[in-house]
Amino acid sequence: MDRRHTKGSGSVQGSALTTLADFALGYAMASTGDLPLALTTASLTIAFADTAVPGDLLTATVGIQRIGTPFANCYLHAAGRRMARASGIYAIGRSAPRDRSSGGTPAAGDGVRGAGHAFLAQPESPDSAGCT
Known about the structure:
The structure is a single chain. With 132 residues, this protein is mostly beta strands. It has one domain (3-119): Hotdog Thioesterase (Thiol Ester Dehydrase, Chain A). 13% of the residues lie in helices and 39% in strands. Strands 1-4-3-2-6-5 form a 6-stranded mixed β-sheet, covered by helices on one side. It is elongated. The chain starts with 13 loop residues before the first helix and ends in a 9-residue tail after the last strand.
């Protein structure tokens, strides 16, 4: 994160963390099948645990809870500290994947990118399944 993502106090805006969580959750859910799913965020909740500052490298760890009714949890970390926990429910739609050069969504296998920044999304470890 850099200064563009901060508020007056110098910490990263919660909206920037929320966007990262939604992006990571949606990308992980859309990539679960043989073909990328067209998803729309139906519900997203987030609880913040710490503040991020410019220069922090944020990682998103996603744990998919259900695929039939897409539901997943995401944990954002920076420097070993948990920044936030987000839960998302997604509606499955029907649309053809758009070409990225026209501003569309990334195709399966692409890195997760937003606002010119690459985000690292890591799968949830087996010992942390069934998150609380």
